[in-house]
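Forwarding these from the shared drive since the link keeps breaking.
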Amino acid sequence: MPVNSSYPSWVQELHSPPKPRSKIASSLRDPPGFSPSLTGKRSALASKIPQRSPPTPEETDILKIKKSWEVALAPAKQLPMNAIMMYMSGNSLQIFSIMMVFMLFKNPIQGLLQTNQAFARYETPRTKGKMWLVKAVYVLMNLVALALGVWKVNGMGLLP
């Protein structure tokens, strides 16, 4: 870009070459870790960094299994929060406690109905044999959440 007076001064300074160092600036040492030969030369630095190879199918499958375990254990991570909320909401029949119980039943039932959809993106022909255990844990955690809801309904006196 040619230096033109129609551009702001910062644009002109950005596209013009740096001025030579003055005597005062040349007497100062560079800070530790500073290399004047690498400033402004990102391509030289990028060529020294080794390129990352794409993951192998085995590594991808291991990563998918790990991610599916995170999805399977997510309902278990919500159990302590739900238990505290159910305890704090009380056993009386009020709109707040009824809505809390409704959400406590709705989420696990919805999770149970959508089990295969929750794990569809992690399932491949190579991981199909390992996914049954992950799905079983997911279903078990949702059943525990349902049991928490039954406990709360019993505490409210709504079960015979």
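-- next protein --
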Amino acid sequence: MPPKKVQAESRKAKEATTTDGPKSTLDVADEEAQSQTNDASSNVPLKRKAPESNEPSPKAPRRSARGAQTTATDPIHIAKFLLSPSSLDLCRPKDEIEDIKNRGFQLRTYASSTFSPFEELACAIILSRPISHALGLRSIRTIFNDPYSFATPRKIREAGYEGVRKALDEARTQHRQKTAEELLILANAVVDTLGDGDEEDVTLEKVRKDSAHELEKEKEILRKSIKGLGKTGLEIFARRIQAQWPEVYPYADTRTLSALNKIGLPNKVESLAKMLDENWGQLGVKDVEGDIDTQKRKALARVLERAVELDLEGNGDAARVEASSLGSS
């Protein structure tokens, strides 16, 4: 073993060489190994800031020009679409669309058929029950088509409670007992109180005459005469019957005004009626019968009804997209 003095000098020399002097072979090898490790680490992809570019980000949501127009679709185009047959499938529940495919377009439906005042009252009673839109419309299709066709008070009275209940059972709806009872009450009231005893009379003209053609009086007579016909049912009836009774026009209840607002139409019925009147030539209404005033009443009632149905079916956005294409065609 070297003397301590020699060991100390050797250690000092080594420290000086490590910090300031030439590196040993072992030191160089260690540094090369460390360098290789760092190089390997540098090959691991890092999260880098995306390069600036005028191109849209590939992850950005795509917005079609057609979809972007839906929020600003011209109300006239919306009304024109709602008045056209093209809007019907968006207004119908899926089971009604299938029913029409299976049974044909002659099938009487709430969305596309003309009903008598008596039938409109029956529909209002059904639709005012706490059931879904689809169940209500299915009930209407069932009772007003073969084999039941309860289109007159006589037909309902002849069927009696059991016959009406059977039809509602076939419709697979809810509240069948209550609804059957109320439809029978309606038929009896129309014959015994609201009419002149004629079981075939579906006009309700006596109601109009007794109320001097004033809507609020008409509603009050109906409410008092027909058990189960409340505020909601009377509003549904008034919204539809204005197509036939000029004294009701223009009419829209709060529920309907909300639907109009959602789809982008004037949410005041007077404003909507004025818009239809002033732009009548642009609306392309061809399947509405009657003189010009009757056509305009029917057009308003149709727009109101389909706005509500679109809302109930959740198809308002789809309708706006379709309506926007009318402006670009």
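Residues 1-10, 12-71 have pLDDT under 50 and may be disordered. The chain has 18 helices and no strands.

- D.
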